[in-house]
Give the backbone structure.
Amino acid sequence: MTETNKPTDLYSKAQSAADYIRNKTPLLPSLGIILGSGLGNFANHVKSATRIPYADIPHFPQSTVQGHSGHLVLGTIAGVPVAVMQGRVHAYEGYEMAQVTFPTRVLGLLGCKTLIVTNAAGGIRTTLQQGSIVVISDHINLTGTNAALGPNEPRFSMIPGAGQRFFDMSTAYSLRLRTLAIEEAARQEFLLTEGVYLAVLGPSFETPAEIRAFRTLGADLVGMSTVHEVIVARHMGLEILGLSLVTNMAAGIPSYGQETADTIDHEEVMETGRRVETQFTSLLTALIPQITMEQLVAGKKS
């Protein structure tokens, strides 16, 4: 066992990062948000914000991808204390999965009980349109690895019973939070559908043949992130809401109203994120206090 694979090493590094962040602000976040490609501007809506560059946080990985500015923003949304990751890192950048999911571990140690994880995704289901927001109901991990590999560290448990070697993933994406999101979207007069997200390693976009195979497997969306953060969050016992922004149709699938499929590029991903920013911000801003209120009610009942 190498030094970097020792469970105490990972835990101590995560504690060191959390301690550094606590020294920068007295705020105790109850909810964490990871912003995907093109969605980083949401962090600008955090009130009384403390912005910490990833580069300043001990052991924190730094993103090299356009659209991931690399700041941890702590403050409030609708009065709720939050920690917002303005961008993430990916395995295709050369990081190990323990590094990719390290910020998720730190969010848990900071006190986050809920994680909202977002991403830019390619639309596989033909009824989806570019610019749609989709609630993730489940995922398929085709990255060829798992973030929970290696020695188990039960001290990452954030709730009683979490932190186990073998942990359940049958309800990885909270039905309660999915229902809240769908109902809030209806109040805001737009349709929020559910979908299965399939993750690949990247960085190349998928081929049309791969997309046909993914559709056969039951996937509605495809991307290069999210699932390992969710695996680690579930290991810790966090409740999760996943949101995908359909920034492009997947390879070989024409956009709505077109007869032929377009080529895919990252700038298109960024532009779609900018176009849907208002709707995305409105949904999250309304959802966050509802999530917290339901948690308080559930806590009083228990």
